[in-house]
């Protein structure tokens, strides 16, 4: 079963192409959600990597992953309308998945179904998160919805009566599309008939909480639990292993200057919990180009590694 389809630009570390990378979340996710279940053997993640030329490198052989390289007209993309950009992304995803299907010996019918479903949805990723929940007085339901386009990822909430009539509605938050994975880890519950809580739990890595008053739509409390954030100029992998080590700490004023600079400069944001690095993001000027997240067990041992929200491996186990 295919769980993840990721559309990447091989030159995403270049600020010119970083704009594409920031926009390439909604369409691949919509395609993956529209894909009927089928036997994909051991493949669970498909990476479609776009190049501004057709001189492709040799593909890696990683268990569970299938890569496909495509030429992509970035010059055309950057001057296209939003509707045209979404269509170009869909065509790239579809072409890449058909190519992977041929290489893997899969039936192509599920991919044709997914392609048509994306068109039927008008290339809009909008979905309800989990099932609606009834209030303590059993008179109203709470539903949470996620929406993502080229520029935003939004979470909205709706309270309706038993007949479906909307009683209250509001927006929980709006972030850049790279926050899309957050939508799949939200949980929510009522506190009483007038208040509810939404919580994001990323495999124990980061937990955020929002409390909402439905009478006026106010977000009463926003909590980012036990996190320490730092900004750095340098990053290294000690002995080529994870977790990474960030160094040369800088101030927010320095970060602001880097984001505005015309010179190409990179920096890192590190998120720490209980003294351990749980996530870091790499930026080139104002553009996010990469992130790694780490999951630890109860003893503090690193057990999983994620790159751009995709599990990419487990740490090397030391021999006794």
Structure commentary:
This protein is of the alpha+beta class. The chain has three domains: 4-120, no CATH class; 125-224; 228-313, no CATH class. It contains six helices and 18 strands. It has helices at 15-23, 26-34, 74-78, 82-104, 109-120, 252-260, and strands at 4-9, 45-51, 65-71, 125-134, 140-148, 153-161, 166-175, 186-190, 195-201, 207-213, 218-224, 228-236, 245-250, 266-273, 276-284, 287-296, 302-307, 310-313. The strands form four sheets. The protein has a seven-stranded antiparallel sheet with strand order 13-12-14-15-16-17-18. Strands 4-5-6-7 form a four-stranded antiparallel sheet. Helix 2 (26-34) packs across helix 5 (109-120) and helix 4 packs antiparallel against helix 5. 25% of the residues are buried. The mean pLDDT is 86.
Poorly predicted spans: none
- Tell me the distance between the termini: 36 Å
Please state the overall shape, judged from the principal axes of the Cα atoms. globular
Largest pleated sheet: 7 strands, antiparallel
Q: How are the strands ordered across the major sheet?
A: 13-12-14-15-16-17-18
**Number of distinct helices:** 6
Q: Kindly provide the radius of gyration, computed on alpha-carbon positions and rounded to a whole number of angstroms.
A: 21 Å
Mean pLDDT over the residues: 86
Q: How many domains, in number, for the residues?
A: 3
Strand content: 35-45%
